[in-house]
Each structure stands twice: as structure tokens, then as C-alpha cells.
Specification:
A hairpin with a 2-residue loop joins strand 20 and strand 21. Strands 3-4-2-5-6-1-7 form a 7-stranded parallel beta sheet, sandwiched between helices. Strands 8-13-12-9-11-10 form a 6-stranded parallel beta sheet, with helices on both faces. The protein has a 3-stranded antiparallel beta sheet with strand order 19-23-22. The longest helix has 21 residues. The protein is globular, with a radius of gyration of 29 Å. It contains 35 helices and 24 strands. The protein starts with a helix and ends with a strand. The protein folds into 5 domains: about 190 residues, Rossmann fold (3-Layer(aba) Sandwich), CATH 3.40.50.300; about 200 residues, 3-Layer(aba) Sandwich (Rossmann fold); about 80 residues, Winged helix-like DNA-binding domain superfamily/Winged helix DNA-binding domain (Arc Repressor Mutant, subunit A, Orthogonal Bundle), CATH 1.10.10; about 110 residues, HRDC domain (DNA polymerase, domain 1), CATH 1.10.150; about 100 residues, no CATH class. The protein binds adenosine-5'-diphosphate.
Length: about 775
């Protein structure tokens, strides 16, 4: 059978996702393979499809028992013979599994790394045909990763002991160069195909919030998402207990999970969450590795995690089924202090690593600072993540809190020069608190101890409070005018671009968030604005059917003793509701319905659908059918739905002018985008329509492919493309308050006409 047929038959998918096919092909060529993809990108398919095509057995080494159990349940459901062997089984069960394995009953066997040393397993492996050894969560082999597991080192000698060297494939979501090199080197991959891909999870909305009360935020958010399943991550056990208690008081069924609880309770709580008995899980980072629950709709971080790797892995547990989901990080300055404390007091369990304690701490601090910058940046959050993981990105994704926030720009060149002067005078020997305190002219014990009053810069920015000064410093770090040392002292020094500001007069413009109308009217959380469900494509009848199919799924899940999402994902059920399949052929067209699942459940679902619709194909969805079934287009369809919903939520309509108003537009030789927005707003019916902003116009301009904002050598810059030039955009020089020059886009009369036409609605 061909790979494509296997994908459809067993997994129910018609197409491979980005990167999957390359990895599958490389394994089938017999080449060692390393796949680096984020959680939820679909790593399992990359080795499971070839495993079914190779002549012998595939041994998958996986660190977590829960992960194996879930994977094997899914495979068995799909009709693939697979088993796991780990300490959760009794001696007798292990014996039985080994017996079957020797008889060649399984195509795929999951084992914990510790198992590779046992006599029974070695004996089996040496006498069986092992075509491939797959190392899942392969970063566990790297001493530089955060999850180093000494037992992973045993894989190498296990492979060496086999009669014939199998293909080795390794998969991880951790992409740092060091970890990647370690995996290749320690596992001894020979001329491997390495693929880093798919870090962009388009269905995830990213947001950083700084609420006055995190507890209030959580309660409000959950209140608005009653039917949704989600995870709340906290930095400490104490916070887990506290948040869980708050939720319970608000009558939210929440489970909790942290390392201080006994195994039995933890497992029970985990199952409550996985089987949808309790929709919310409050946990430390001890929870989640290997949790495959596909319908997690939100992941909220109550505290900032210690690194972007941790964050993306944890946040990535949202929306594995491809449905829109939210990843919200609740930030407060305190989080940095908590994490620094945790890093400094980190217990290093492994002997070998004790000698390198200092290096490990420096790496941890570096990662923490990068994490902190994610929380402070005003640029696109998705862009920040993708750049961090080494992928190219656009400047704006329009699907994160930063892209959706409106900013106003202010020239802060003078302040920036003052700060540079201060850092220079201090010779970069102090951290941000001392620098800000000095500039503000504060007098507290620490500052007196350092005699900061002797600096010329002392009190030079008296009219600003310290938080404002820190905000400017952080922006300057982001722009490369300043830098912080990557150790626990985090000293502020001059950055690589400092000279541009002091000598080349580049100017420094800062962005400030402006509360948008929706933010003002919404609750603090802004919850629910950014996400539509896959089921939003369904109309009233479609939704009724969806609920019915969900009930049937729960019934089957109970009968089979598996979590509901293992039977069919929500996404698959929605597609069934839209397709209304009455026979095998139609049912098999639904993504997620493979042959085995069809044989097991197909008839029950068809019967349910048939009786609901009385055998009549009715239209159960909004919009065009064609867009529903193109995998990636669902989200674009949803985005357009989302825009429509937002319009409804506000009393004013989105900005437009009528043709009479358009005629009154005061054309000029050139406008800046913000001026253009003001001029358009002025001629509109302000009572009826929302205000137009410069950001709105620029979004349109980007969408038209006229211009964009990109990073060049780490700095943001506006660029005009050929089409933009034709449309009448020109680059011009602006002069800042400090009389420094910088570039910006001007809209000539031709461009003004096009923009006016765009906003003019036919009467
Ligand atoms: P990872 O191991 O990378 O975290 P999984 O292997 O658990 O991700 O896959 C995440 C989800 O994506 C699963 O629900 C899986 O069934 C689905 N998936 C994988 N490959 C495809 C594909 N080609 N088309 C559609 N869905 C897919």
C-alpha cells in the first residue's frame, strides 16, 4: 500500500501536512531522520506511516507512560496492532506482550528507555526484525535541554546490540541548535535528513495580558468559556492550590496536578480531565508531557514560564485538533523574580551536570530573559515565537494580542539619548532598576549605597516615573540600542545600535498601546473575542446535529473505555454535520474517518445522521460548501465569520463612508497614514461608524501587497513593494522632535483615491 493510502485508511487524512511527507519519504529511503516540529504539528504520523510500510517492527522509545498509553489506544482504534511495555503493566502483562511481540503480532511497540536494558527485551530485540527505532521526545538525550534523562543514553548501546542496524528516526519540539546537535551526535545519526518545520500553529491565538487581578481574569474567562476544556499553568504548587480553590468556589469543576501530590491522585485527576469529567486542569509544568487531549481550547499561563521552549510546548497543548484556541499569558513583573528564584534554587539531579552548574544557570537566565522579552514586546507575538525557533515570519500575523492592539507612536529620541548617556556614565555596571531609579532621581537605600547621586544623569528624567523609564529602556533593548548581560545580574549596557542613535541621528519612536473600543467595552479579559469554534460554520440545524453526534461519541467512548476525542475529534464531527453522509463513500470523505474507524462506528454515525435528517440532505452550514473542506481554508472562513461576529457585537458599524462623503474628502499632495485616518474619520458619520485608525489602513495596505513592515538586521523598517509604488505610496523623510530624520510612508493623491474608494460603500 502507498503512503497516501495508509494515511487515509488508518488515519483518515487525505493529505500530509507541511514537512510530514519529507520525513516519511526520508525514512522510507532508509535514511536516518530528525524531525523538529512543535507540539500538535503531527510528528506521530511521520513515523507511524512508514512503520506500517517497513517489513519489520518499529520500536518507539518514549519517556512517558501516559503518552504511550494514549498513542497505543489511538493506533488500536485505527486498526493498527501496537502495544506498549512499561512499568504500568504487571509482570504477567509484560510477559504476554513480549510473547505476542516475538510472534510478530505488533507492527509498533512503545517502550520506556529503562526497558531497553532488561534481559527479556534485549532477547526479543535480538531475535526479531527491527526495521526502525524511533526516539520520541528526542531532546531528552541532550544534557543541555531542560528534560535530560540519563536513561535515554541507553538507546545507543541498545541499537549497537542489534543484529542489523535499523533506521533511526528522532522527533522533538525543541529546536535550539545545541539540542539539535546533541541529538544527532549522541544518537549517532548517520547523514540524517533534518527538518525543522511547522512551528507556526495558525489556529492558536497568542496573547499577553497584564490584568490588575489574575484571579479575577481567570474566573471571568472560565465563566465565559463554560463548555470548553483548558489548562491553567502555574509556576508553583502553592499557586495551583490557590487557583484551583478559587475555581471550585466559583463552581467550576477543576482538577489539579503537581509533583507534591501522590501518584494515585494525580492519575485520577489527569483522567478526570482527559475524559472531560472536569473541563479545567490547574497544574504546574509537571503536567502535560504526553497528554494528547485534542480538544484543549485554551491554555492560560498564570505565571510566565522559564523559557520560550517551555512556553511553546505548554501553550501548544491547545488546539491539537486544529480548532481555533487561545494561549494567554498573564504577566506581572513579579514573575521574573519568582523564576529567578526557582532557577537559582534549582536542584540538579544528575551527577555529571553538577560540575557545569554555572553554565546551566547562565543558559537558564538567558532563556528567562528571552521569555521576559516575549511578554514585553509590542511586536507580533507569533513573529517573536517563530524567530526564536529559527523560522522566518511576517511582521504581523493579525492573530495575536499585539497585532490586534492599536498603538500610537511617540518620538522618544531625547529620552533615549539621555538613557544612553546615563548607561555610558555608569559604564554598564548596573541593572535596570538602578538605571531607572538614578534617572528619576529616586532616593532609596540601594541607590544611596551605590552613591548614584554623583552621576550627572541623576534626576535627569524627573518628570517620568520609574515604570515609564523602564518601559523606554525595555523598548531600547528590543531595538538593540541597549542590551542586558545574560547572567543573573542582568546589567544594562550599550547595544550594538547605540551609535546609530548618538551619531547617525536615526531617531527613536516608541509605540504605546491604546485601549481599543472593544477593549473598553469588554471585560478586562477581553475573553472570547479571538476565537471561533469549528462548529461556528454550522447553522442552527447543524449545531443540533453536532450536539447529537457528540452524545453518540460519549456513549461509544464509555463503551470502549477511551477518551471521547480518540473516537473522533470535534473537527471530524463538524465535518460530518456539514457533509451529512448517508453511505460509506460519503462518510470516508470526512477528514479523520479512516477505514477501521468506519468499520467500527461508521454505521452508528450514519444511522444517527439519517434519522436526524429524515434522509434529506439539508444545508447545515453557513457560506459556501467548498471552503469548508479545504483544510487550511476553514480558518480563513472562520476568520471572516469572526469579523462578522465582531461587527455584531458592537453598536457602531465598522468604518465606511458613502459616496457623497467621499466627494468631500480633502485631497492633498501627500498624507501620512495616521493623518489619512483622521481625515477619513472627519468626513464620516461618527455617530454611526467606528473611528478609522492608521493601523486599520496599514493592515489593508499590507493585505493588498503594497507595503509591509519587516525586520532588517533585527530592526523594524517599513518597505514599499512595486504594487505599492504603482498605487502611489512613496517613502519620505520625517523629522522627529529632536530634529532627527527617519523614514515613513506617504500616501500621494493616487493612493488617497484608492483608499477612499476602498472605504466607500455603495449607497
Ligand atoms: P505531535 O506529536 O507533533 O504533538 P500529533 O502527532 O499528536 O502531534 O498530531 C496532532 C494532531 O494532528 C492529531 O490529532 C493528529 O491526528 C492530527 N494530524 C496529524 N497529521 C495530520 C494530517 N496530515 N492531516 C490532518 N490532521 C493530522
Amino acid at each position: 500500500m502507498q503512503k497516501q493510502e495508509i494515511l487515509k485508511k488508518y488515519f483518515g487524512y487525505t493529505n500530509f501536512r507541511e514537512g510530514q511527507e519529507i520525513l516519511v519519504d526520508s525514512i522510507l529511503r532508509g535514511q536516518d531522520t530528525l524531525g523538529i516540529m512543535p507540539t500538535g504539528a503531527g510528528k506521530s504520523v511521520c513515523y507511524q506511516v512508514p512503520a506500517l510500510m517497513l517489513s519489520g517492527i518499529t520500536v518507539v522509545i518514549s519517556p512517558l507512560i501516559s503518552l504511550m498509553k494514549d498513542q497505543v489506544s489511538s493506533l488500536n482504534q485505527a486498526g493498527i496492532h501496537a502495544a506498549y511495555i512499561n512499568s504500568s503493566l504487571t509482570e504477567n502483562q509484560i510477559k504476554k506482550a513480549m510473547e505476542y511481540a516475538i510472534k510478530g503480532q505488533y507492527k509498533i511497540i512503545y517502550v520506556a528507555p529503562e526497558r531497553l536494558e532488561t534481559y527479556e527485551f534485549i532477547n526479543f530485540a535480538q531475535n526479531a526484525e527491527i526495521s526502525m527505532v524511533t526516539v520520541d521526545e528526542a531532546h531528552c538525550i541532550s544534557q543541555w535541554g531542560q528534560d535530560f534523562r540519563p536513561s535515554y543514553l541507553k538507546i545507543v548501546s541498545f541499537v549497537k546490540g542489534l543484529r542489523k542496524r535499523p533506521i533511526i528516526s528522532a522527533f522533538t519540539a525543541t529546536a535550539t541548535e545545541q539540542v539539535k546537535e546533541d541529538i544527532i551526535c549522541v544518537l549517532g545519526l548517520s547523514n540524517p535528513q533534518v527538518l525543522v518545520s511547522g512551528f507556526d500553529r495558525k489556529n492558536l491565538y497568542f496573547s499577553v495580558e497584564k490584568p490588575k487581578s489574575k484571579d479575577r481574569f481567570i474566573v471571568d474567562y472560565i465563566e465565559k468559556h463554560k463548555d470548553d476544556s483548558g489548562i491553567i499553568y502555574c509556576a508553583t504548587r502553592k499557586n495551583v492550590e490557590k487557583v484551583c480553590e478559587i475555581l471550585e468556589k466559583s463552581n467550576v469543576p477543576a482538577a489539579k496536578y503537581h509533583a507534591g501530590m501522590d501518584n494515585h491522585t494525580r492519575n485520577e485527576n489527569q483522567e478526570d480531565f482527559i475524559y472531560d469529567r472536569k473541563p479545567v486542569m490547574v497544574a504546574t509544568n509537571a503536567f502535560g508531557m504526553g497528554i494528547d487531549k485534542s480538544n484543549v481550547r485554551f491554555v492560560i499561563h498564570y505565571n510566565m514560564p522559564q523559557s520560550m521552549e517551555n512556553y511553546y510546548q505548554e501553550a501548544g497543548r491547545a488546539g491539537r485538533d486544529g480548532e481555533d484556541s487561545e494561549c494567554i499569558l498573564l504577566y506581572s513583573g513579579q514573575d521574573l523574580i519568582i523564576n529567578r528564584f526557582l532557577i537559582e534554587n534549582k536542584e540538579i539531579k544528575n551527577e555529571d551536570m553538577r560540575d557545569n552548574y554555572k553554565i546551566i544557570q547562565t543558559h537558564d537566565e538567558m532563556r528567562l530573559q528571552q521569555m521576559n522579552r516575549y511578554c514585553l514586546t509590542k511586536d507580533c507575538l507569533r513573529g517573536y515565537i517563530l524567530q526564536y525557533f529559527g523560522e522566518h515570519s511576517k511582521i504581523r500575523c493579525e492573530n495575536c494580542s499585539n497585532c490586534q492592539r492599536e498603538y500610537k507612536e511617540e518620538d522618544k529620541t531625547e529620552e533615549a539619548l539621555q538613557i544612553i548617556e546615563c548607561v555610558r556614565e555608569m559604564r554598564g555596571r548596573y541593572g535596570i532598576n538602578v538605571v531607572a531609579g538614578t534617572l528619576n532621581g529616586a532616593s532609596r537605600a540601594k541607590l544611596r549605597e551605590y552613591h548614584v547621586e554623583k552621576f550627572n544623569a541623576y534626576g535627569a528624567m524627573k518628570s517620568y516615573n520609574e515604570d515609564e523609564i523602564k518601559q523606554i529602556i525595555n523598548e531600547m533593548i528590543e531595538a538593540g540600542y541597549l542590551m542586558v548581560t545574560q547572567d543573573k545580574y542582568a546589567l544594562v549596557k550599550l547595544g550594538v545600535h547605540a551609535q546609530d542613535l548618538t551619531e547617525k541621528n536615526t531617531g527613536f519612536v516608541m509605540k504605546y498601546a491604546v485601549a481599543s473600543e472593544t477593549e473598553k467595552t469588554d471585560t478586562e479579559s477581553g475573553a472570547g473575542k479571538h476565537r471561533t469554534r469549528k462548529s461556528d460554520v454550522l447553522n442552527g440545524r447543524g449545531l443540533e446535529l453536532f450536539e447529537q453526534l457528540r452524545r453518540l461519541r460519549t456513549e461509544i467512548a464509555k463503551e470502549e473505555g477511551v477518551p471521547p476525542y480518540i473516537v473522533f475529534s470535534d473537527k471530524t464531527l463538524v465535518e460530518m454535520c456539514a457533509e451529512i453522509p448517508f453511505n460509506r463513500e460519503e462518510m470516508m470523505r470526512v477528514a479523520g474517518v479512516g477505514e477501521n474507524k468506519f468499520n467500527k462506528y461508521g454505521k452508528r454515525f450514519i444511522d444517527e445522521i439519517f434519522s436526524f435528517t429524515n434522509g434529506i440532505k439539508e444545508k447545515t452550514y453557513f457560506g459556501e460548501r467548498a471552503v469548508l473542506f479545504a483544510d487550511n481554508e476553514i480558518s480563513s472562513y472562520q476568520s471572516s465569520m469572526k469579523r462578522k461576529t465582531r461587527r455584531k457585537s458592537s453598536e457602531k458599524s465598522p468604518f465606511f463612508i458613502n459616496s457623497q462623503q467621499a466627494e468631500a474628502f480633502p485631497y492633498k499632495e501627500r498624507y501620512l497614514v495616521t493623518e489619512l485616518a483622521v481625515a477619513l474619520t472627519e468626513i464620516s458619520d461618527k455617530e454611526a461608524v467606528k473611528k478609522l485608525t492608521g493601523a486599520d489602513i496599514f493592515r489593508y495596505v499590507i493585505g493588498e501587497g503594497w507595503a509591509d513592515e519587516i525586520y532588517i538586521e533585527g530592526r523594524r523598517k517599513k518597505v514599499i513593494y512595486e504594487m505599492g509604488k504603482t498605487a502611489g505610496l512613496v517613502m519620505g523623510i520625517r523629522i522627529s522632535k529632536k530634529e532627527t530624520e527617519y523614514e515613513d510612508i506617504y500616501y500621494t493623491e493616487h493612493a488617497q483615491k484608492l483608499i477612499v474608494a476602498h472605504y466607500t460603500r455603495a449607497d
